Structure formats: structure tokens, C-alpha cells
Amino acid sequence: MVHETPNRVRLRCTLLYRPELDLDYVKAILSSFKGVTQVRLNPRAASITVHYDGRSGVKELLVSTLDNLPQEAYLPRVQENDQMDLLNVTALGAFALVSPFLPRPLAKGLSWLAAAPTLMKGVETLLSKGVKVEVLDAAAVGMSLARADYFTANAIVALLTLGRYLEYTSDKKSVDLLTSLLKPQVEKVWVEIDGAEVSMAADQLEIGSLVIVGSGEMIPVDGRVEEGEASLNQSSITGEAAPRHVAPGDAVLSGAVVQEGRIKIKAGQVGNQTSMARVNRFLENSLRHKSEPERRTEELADKLVPFSLGLGLAEYAFTRDFRRAASVLTVDYSCALKLAGPVGVRTSMYNASQSGVMIKGAQALESMAGVDTIVFDKTGTLTTGDLKVTQVVPFNRLSEDRLLAMAAGAEEHYTHPVAKAVVKRAEEKGLPLPAMSQVDFIVAHGISAYVDGIRVLVGSHHFICEDEGVDTSQADLMASKFRQEGKSILYVARKGVLEGLVVMEDEVRPEAPMVLKNLKEQGLKKIVVLTGDHMETARHLADNLGEVDQIHWELKPEDKAEIVKGLQAQGTKLAFVGDGVNDAPALVSADVGICMPLGADLARESAQVLLMHDDLRGLAVAREIAVRSQSTLNHCFRATLALNTAVLALASMGVLSPLTSAIMHNTSTILTLGYATTRSMAKTKMAEKN
Ligand SMILES: Nc1ncnc2c1ncn2[C@@H]1O[C@H](COP(=O)(O)OP(=O)(O)OP(=O)(O)O)[C@@H](O)[C@H]1O
Ligand SMILES: [Zn+2]
């Protein structure tokens, strides 16, 4: 801290000198703190000036934030070998081929020049990280050069470059592709214009627009809260899981998801400038995040390096034969071990995405292969979620149409399947919807709103009867009859009196029975169904599906998560498949969260696997690909050990020249990679049926 007045601090922060620091990001994060009104960064002076309202704690918060900037604050590392294109590889290869025919002094000079980067990298690695594979490479090349075997030295350099080129391109391609598929998008937004809420396309927002965001929705702009309070899930921006509470005056970042509450935001930045761009980067990082088996494999690969080096040195000590030592040094386990993992994983992810399943990273793939139980949410997951109103039953003076219009007016802004069904039916009938104010959505319960100052409630039996104390007894018999037919029921009350029922029908997804059967065939032990709906409705569904081992009903969102945790406590590894806001806690608690394509933003954020087609078959595909990907990794692991050990043995017996051993080593790596790619790309049984 260099300077301070009651409402302003100036900090010196040498981090600003670092070119890879994303200044916009730092600014956005600091501006989002409560009380902060202005943030100015001056990278050349390494100074940050923050204006704030003088409240206590802000300074400390600023300092601790700067001390612990998340990984996302840095621009993606510029690839070490950006210029590493195919041309480079070809040139090195061609040079290796002609080098034996060049005049000796010229060959010598050029070879040392060509090998310089490899040698330097080796020394640098040795000094900074210890004995790693780069050191082996440098030693092998160096020994060949020392022996004046320029052809071998150049060939090894060319092969190494080829290997790195393959690694770089496969990595970049798969990451680019997956990022573009994963990018979260907000399409429709609610905007307040002259006091009325209007729906418009997100890309038409302007600076200063008043955007309204309710629970379960993603914030489409960077800006400030004008009205309302909410708790936000910012995990996709900051990586921080704890919810953040915001009130008027607070800055909010696009990409954050409203967990609870409803806020009006004044847009400060729209479109591409928003921090949504940062979400992208987060995704990219999570793609590079390795799974446990991958990390173990890499560790092993690293541990084997000193072994190869030791063997090479011992070889030299005993035989005084540089040639043999160099042959040994060209062989290492880490190439194949380190490449096959990520390539296999990403190819599997790519394959899955071709069948409409987005698997977000290696960890998700691994967990997906390990589950023995799948827990399904009912509405929108096992059913189409495309509910249809079949009956409207008024109990008092209201006509059917007025009852329906009242319910639809309250539901107008919501995306819950029951809300959509009611609104759609009212639209079909061309009913004018009454204007509502103070509309409140209570997750997994229903809606409370006011028409002309009169309180209207629309929701479940539990909400209307137990929470709000409305007498619903006159509807009980009729409701039970409807439920036994598999129908769902909304209760509508006004002024504390039950006005009627809206009866809805949901269809079982046609593919659901087949998918459940396939999953059981794939070795899953248990299938569980959870629902916020009534018992009788849930029973009816389970009877129609078959293969269901357990049902739980009338659950609140936290209950769903509790049941998931309970099952886990019994030692089950489980996947949860859901679609709604109310599923987010369960999606997070499960070993793997799987989300349907039309799910709420919050659910899509929380899930590790996203089905992109509105079809449950993706689930069977995901499971098959995941299981296969794990076994592919195992195969590659064993093949790498076996092949390289064989080459190493031959090399140390002096049977192989350094060049042959380098070629064999690289061929085995490419074969392993080829195997990993082909097997991960193979079609799944489920996809073949399509
Ligand atoms: N927007 C809404 N309007 C009216 N009632 C609602 C609304 N959202 C939820 N409810 C009521 O709360 C109940 C529970 O909702 P929740 O979203 O938890 O589960 P669900 O949609 O019935 O089923 P599932 O848990 O299988 O998805 C619903 O059955 C419905 O009666
Ligand atoms: Zn309740």
C-alpha cells in the first residue's frame, strides 16, 4: 500500500509487470467488491488505484485477492513453440537425411545449430526441474554430436520435434473444439423498458439496458445491481464455489448464475467485452485439468526417467561405448505415457460430443466409468418435460379460462416445465393474461404474485396446503384419481381460498425404457427415481418404465442432494441426471452430474456431463465411451511399458544403433497413440442403433 485517503487506496503490485496477467480480469474482480466504485490499473507503474466508500475490510480484501489471484487471471500460456509447424518438422527431417552428404565442417556446424534448442532445453530443465525427459533427450543428442554422428543426432532432433508437434496439434485441436462446444450462451433476456418487462435477444442488449435476472438464470452482462438482492454462483468465473450475496450497488459479472433471488442489473458492458469471455478461459483450463489416473501415469513416467538415464550412464561406465549409451538414452517411457492419456481422453470427449454428449474433462470421464448407480430426476429427464394441460377444474365462481389465465399470468416469466405448460395452454386459447406484480418463485413449491393487490398462489399441494394453510380438502379425492393416471396437478388459490386445479400430463420419453435396460446390461446395479411431484404420479411412471429399483417423492431440492449423499454414504458411486434449478445441489453432490439439454443454466453449469440432444440415449453412449476410455488407458499403459522395455533391453545389449532405437521408440509411441485414438473414436452400440 503506497498511499491512502479515507476513500481511496493506491497499491503497488509488481504482478502488473507480468505480461500474461489479464488486466481486464483483475479490474473486473476488484470492481465487483462491495463498496468499490472505481478501479484504475497502471501496469507501467505497477500501481492500482481503488476508489471506495471507505468501509472497513476493503483494503484487506484487495490485498488478499491480489495475493491469491486465481489461475484464470492469467492469459493462457503462450505455447512454448508457437512456430512449431509442420514445415519446421519437415525441414529438420530433410536436413537429417542430407547431413551425411554435406562437407564435414558444414554438417558439424549446422547439426550443432539444429540441436541447440534441444540441448539448451535439457540444461534448463536439469537446473530448474531436475532429471526429466528433456534431459534424456539432450543427453542422447549431445552424445551423438560428441561422437560426430551427425546423422543420428539430427534424426533424433527431427523425431523429437515431430513428437512435440503431434502433441501440440492434438492438444490444441481438441481443446479448441471442445471449448466452442461448451461455451455457455444466454440467448433470451428480460429487459425493463419504460417500466414493462420485455423479452429480447441477448445480443441486442445495449450499455445501460436494465436486465432482469431470476433464479437459475445466467447473468448475460457485466454491470451493477439496480434493484433486488440475490445470491450468485460465480464458480465459472472465479472458480470459487461459495455463493456471493449481492445487493443494489454491487457489481456483477456475466457468466455468474443467480442461485436465489431476482435482480435488476444496469448493463455496463455487453457482448464480447463481458467477462463471459473469461468463462471460456475457465473452461479451457478445466479441459487441461488432468484426471487422477492421468496424473499417476505421468508421475510414473517421470520416475522412470532417472532410471533410463542411470542405465545409460551405467552402460557407458561398463562398456566405454558412447554409441550404446546413446541408444539407451533415446528410449524413455514418458512420451507414450504422457501423450496417450490426454489424447485418449480428448478423443473420447470428441467422440461423445459427436453423439451429442458433452463430457467436461478427464475427471468426469473417469467418474462416469466408475458409477454403479444412476439417479434420475423425473420431470424433463425420464419424461419429456413437455407437459400438456388436460383439464382445468374451477371450484368457485371463476370460469375455466379465468382460472387458467390467472395461473398463466403468474407463471409467465418462468421456465419450469409446469410454468411453460400453463402459459402455452393460455396462449393457445388466446387468453389475455392479467398483469401481475411482486411475482415470487419459491423453488420446488410454486409462485406467489399479486393481481390488483390480491395475493394469488400457484403451486404444489404441499405449498398451497401445508406451507400456506389453504384448505384443499375438497380437491383431494379428484386429485388422487388424476395422479393414479400419472397426471401432475397444480393448485391455484386466491385470497387464501382454493380456486381450482390445473391438471397436466407428461409423457414418458419413448427411448427411456430401452436406455434403462441398456444401462443395466452395461453393468449398472441400481436405478433410482427422485421427484418433487406426488407419490402416486411417480409410482405410475416407475411401473411404466421397468428397471426402476427405488423411488422417492415430494422432495425439495436439498432433499434430493440428501438422498444422493445418503446413497454415497452406503458406498454407492452414482451419477445424477437432472434438468432443473432444483437439481443443482444434487448434481453437485453426485459423483457425476448429468444435465439434460433444456436444463436451467444453473443445472448446466453444475453438471459435468451435458446431453446436447433431448434424448436419453446420450446417457448410454456416455457410459460406454467412459468405460472404454478407461480400459484404453490401461491398455496403452501396459503396451508402453512392454514395448519400451523391450527396446531398452535390446539397446543395452548393443543390438540397436541409437538411430534404430530412436525410430523404434518413436514408432511405438505413434502406434500407442494410434491405438488410443482409434479405440476412443470407435462408435458406441447405442450410436450404431441410430
Ligand atoms: N413454477 C412453478 N409454478 C407452480 N408450481 C411449481 C412451480 N415449480 C414447481 N412447482 C411445484 O412444485 C413441485 C415440485 O417442483 P420440482 O421442480 O421440485 O419438481 P417437479 O418438476 O415436479 O418434478 P421433478 O423433481 O421430477 O423435476 C412441482 O410438482 C409443482 O407442483
Ligand atoms: Zn415447503
Automatic annotation (TrEMBL):
Keywords for the protein's UniProt record, in alphabetical order: ATP-binding, Cell membrane, Membrane, Metal-binding, Nucleotide-binding, Translocase, Transmembrane, Transmembrane helix
Keyword Transmembrane helix: yes
Subcellular location: Cell membrane; Membrane
GO CC annotation: plasma membrane
GO molecular function per UniProt: ATP binding; ATP hydrolysis activity; metal ion binding; P-type zinc transporter activity
Catalytic activity: Zn(2+)(in) + ATP + H2O = Zn(2+)(out) + ADP + phosphate + H(+)
Assigned EC number: 7.2.2.12
Domain P-type ATPase A: 187-283
Top EC class of this enzyme: translocase
Family: Belongs to the cation transport ATPase (P-type) (TC 3.A.3) family. Type IB subfamily.
UniProt-recorded name of the protein: P-type Zn(2+) transporter
Protein source organism: Dethiosulfatarculus sandiegensis
